[in-house]
Amino acid sequence: MTFPVVGMVGGGQLARMTHEAGIPLGIKFKLLSDTPQDSAAQVAGEVVIGDYRDLDTLRAFARGCDVITFDHEHVPTEHLRALEADGIPVRPGPDALVHAQDKGVMRAKLDEIGAPSPRHRIVADTADAVAFADEVGGFPIILKTVRGGYDGKGVWFVRTAEDARDPFLAGVPVLAEEKVDFVRELAANIVRSPHGQAVAYPVVESRQVDGVCDTVIAPAPDLDEELGGQAQELALRIAKELGVVGHLAVELFQTTDGRILVNELAMRPHNSGHWTMDGAITSQFANHVRAVLDLPLGDPRPRAPWTVMCNVLGGDYPDMYQGYLHCMARDPQLKIHMYGKDVKPGRKVGHVNTYGDDLDETLERARHAADYLRGTIVE
Amino acid sequence: MTFPVVGMVGGGQLARMTHEAGIPLGIKFKLLSDTPQDSAAQVAGEVVIGDYRDLDTLRAFARGCDVITFDHEHVPTEHLRALEADGIPVRPGPDALVHAQDKGVMRAKLDEIGAPSPRHRIVADTADAVAFADEVGGFPIILKTVRGGYDGKGVWFVRTAEDARDPFLAGVPVLAEEKVDFVRELAANIVRSPHGQAVAYPVVESRQVDGVCDTVIAPAPDLDEELGGQAQELALRIAKELGVVGHLAVELFQTTDGRILVNELAMRPHNSGHWTMDGAITSQFANHVRAVLDLPLGDPRPRAPWTVMCNVLGGDYPDMYQGYLHCMARDPQLKIHMYGKDVKPGRKVGHVNTYGDDLDETLERARHAADYLRGTIVE
């Protein structure tokens, strides 16, 4: 048999769920993980423990892999180029991935291809950030380090010149963005393969709490059909222009004046696509694997009128397994996805999916289960 | 966290798919496998290589497991009792499992509880088999070794006294059964937990080719509602009377005169339940895990009007991956499940699932994909 070896860098939950999705395909999955306790390392068959920042480690890992893909976007761009020079297919490749690694490069490229962004520019220091605020009509503004941020880290909501000091302490270039007046956040998830086939999932609504994704509703309720189509087309165009291979999440603001603006890009399976595991004909993870192997992509359409995903965040209760009894007995249709991670307050340790014909009921079921597992509610 | 450790004995595809189903539950899965190349051993995180027939190996494996369950029914009954005596929960337990291990014990128990079987008795030798044939109206009859058979192995279709010699060569007790006039084979799959909760999947039609399961249609087409209910109730009753924990498959004959008779019992996830992976709200594998952990069971109802499973058997083509291009491009809704097994003629190396609103179309899609992967058809 000539089933290929997919090497995945990073042992987080995205790798865990990618491995899960790869099992039915009969492919061989090889993981590069920081520790044997990492989420994916607990459940994968072939695990190499090592530091993805070390080129020799990456090279040794890549040997015998037919393709390399990623759980996160933190592998240095120059290492990815070195792997490519070694003849290893890297998907997404460094020329695409840099746009998800560096928010400055991302904004410049989006401007170049005419994709709508919040007003923005790189700012040199606090005084320059204040000047930018003046240019966009005053504070508040958003400051972001161009590299290294995720889940609200590396992002500052800046109301005063005083607030505009911390972002410069790390010595990393800082991107300033206007504070957009938005009614909600959306995400357009697509998957693209090397030969150019692409599929678009329905656009979803993503609700954040404290900068962390909390709830995703698929499809986004009451979304104007034309605006939804625009969002899908935008994501497909970004993927094509940037040469993305695999899953691309385009996080969007739906503005009060009815436009969509690109907030962030992620070139890997994404939290806003976790609903697809139970709610779509083909999950984002299965399609990501198919894309990086240049296999024909699976049908991205939903299987139910509504699917809701709620993240399970760590709370005060360390023992989430205890909550299974209540949650499973209350809702035999509930889908629990836990990541094998130790509970720490605010940490994403799992998610739940529900689907059904009635949005309110579907939402309530997911909300209840996530809150119960976290320990926020007790019945 | 107190997530439990589920130990599974046997590294075949049932263990592989059980591991896959266990990942979202965040449980720890530990495998006892004959070799590192076994289907499940390729993809599981914690694998112990050893011989399940050796009690010391089993005992060492069971240490640290919260429960032991099985990929197959071949672990000696006395070893299971020893594990139980050590205080390890064994699910299903030896008192239940013996009915799936020994067809003689199974038939005696079914008689005792009034479950309908083909006419049968243990026969001592060829002459006794001929006598049995006379008792049931003449040849053909079926002879089965009471232990060790599966997928048509250990089963003889006996047309003459001459045919009735081989079954006795192994020196194992032989069960004789009448050849039932049946219109088709059905399977009633249920899952039962230690505290007595049980769920019943819709009764399916199972089509065999050369004694090996080939196609499963869920639900069984044109099945009389009352007969379907009888089959589900029968399976639930057998599970209760035999003390089964986990998945129980009751293979049935639907006779020409409109009765159902028990053909075989399997106390583990079963080929006739593979359709549930894509066709039911909760798969047989997920429910088996929930049952052995005494968690509330998941909803067994179908997600689509029709789901069809076709086994992919090994053919002349060793490279099944090549067929993915055609199959995935032709049918973006196709669900492929490959087991990582080397292709040998007639060996079950995977299965495909399709679902849809129209039975003929759903059947054709699954049939085409299975035949194409096997290499029976080329387009």
Automatic annotation (TrEMBL), chains A, B:
The UniProt keyword set, sorted, is: ATP-binding, Ligase, Nucleotide-binding, Purine biosynthesis
EC number(s) of the enzyme? 6.3.4.18
Does the entry feature the keyword Ribonucleoprotein, yes or no? no
The ATP-grasp domain covers: 107-294
A GO term, aspect molecular function: 5-(carboxyamino)imidazole ribonucleotide synthase activity
InterPro entries this protein is in? ATP-grasp, ATP-grasp_carboxylate-amine, ATP_grasp_subdomain_1, PreATP-grasp_dom_sf, PurK, PurK_C, PurT/PurK_preATP-grasp, Rudment_hybrid_motif
Q: Where does ATP bind?
A: K103, K144, E177, E178, K179, V180, E185, N263, E264
Q: Which reaction does it catalyse?
A: 5-amino-1-(5-phospho-beta-D-ribosyl)imidazole + hydrogencarbonate + ATP = 5-carboxyamino-1-(5-phospho-D-ribosyl)imidazole + ADP + phosphate + 2 H(+)
Q: A Pfam family for this UniProt protein? A: PurK_C
Which top class of enzyme applies to this chain? Answer: ligase
Keyword Nucleotide-binding carried by entry: yes
Q: Where does this protein act, in terms of pathway? A: Purine metabolism; IMP biosynthesis via de novo pathway; 5-amino-1-(5-phospho-D-ribosyl)imidazole-4-carboxylate from 5-amino-1-(5-phospho-D-ribosyl)imidazole (N5-CAIR route): step 1/2
Give the PANTHER family listed for this entry.
PHOSPHORIBOSYLAMINOIMIDAZOLE CARBOXYLASE, PURINE BIOSYNTHESIS PROTEIN 6/7, PUR6/7
Q: Which family does it belong to?
A: Belongs to the PurK/PurT family.
User: Which function does this protein serve?
Assistant: Catalyzes the ATP-dependent conversion of 5-aminoimidazole ribonucleotide (AIR) and HCO(3)- to N5-carboxyaminoimidazole ribonucleotide (N5-CAIR). Catalyzes the ATP-dependent conversion of 5-aminoimidazole ribonucleotide (AIR) and HCO(3)(-) to N5-carboxyaminoimidazole ribonucleotide (N5-CAIR).
Its assembly, as annotated, is: Homodimer.
Fetch the NCBIfam families from UniProt: PRK06019.1-5 (NF004679), PRK06019.1-6 (NF004680), purK (TIGR01161)
Instruction: Name the chain's protein.
Output: N5-carboxyaminoimidazole ribonucleotide synthase
Q: Which organism is it from?
A: Streptomyces omiyaensis
